[in-house]
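Handoff note, outgoing to incoming analyst
You'll be picking up this chain. Sequence as last confirmed:
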Amino acid sequence: MRPAVLSLIIALLTAGASYAQDNNRQQMNITSRSYSLKSSSYMMGRYAGILSDMISGALKMDISDDQKAKVSKLRDDYMYPMSRDESDLRKADMKVMKMLGDPSFDPAKVKEEIAKSDALDKKVSDMYVDALVSLRDAIGKENYVELNKSVTRYRDSLVQMRKNRQPRSMTRTMMKSEPEKTGTPSPAPDSKN
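Most recent structure output, in case you need it:
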């Protein structure tokens, strides 16, 4: 009797460890997959990311080659510099938080760093507005209105997916308003156990 009980305990422990390991692997895969599928614009700063989506959307519109050239030029003129400045802004904000974490911080130095951070934030905000004006001038007001609506819907669906922890591949499904397709069969309506 004892060898049978011992065998059963070993089998249960092995199965439990295997299940926990598989579950942990599955969670890690979901996390890494959703991270790698995030929009590259979210990896940039807030303004550079929105501008990236606007430029990409404008290039997909039915506009002339001259207009597409003007829109493409906005990446070099505005988006890349804004992205660098927003990265510097994040570093400056982290520096301020690190300074405040030290119990013997110098208030004058902290205020000076905050002033630098505020100036950089204003610079990026002004560049963003100038970039949108240039984009509007390049594609026209009517196209700009349509572009703004479509990009807003796209970004809203990405935010909603991030809240629901869905992979980015679901964007097309959400934008087309198609029901989600899964590999599991739906349960029978009148099944009895």
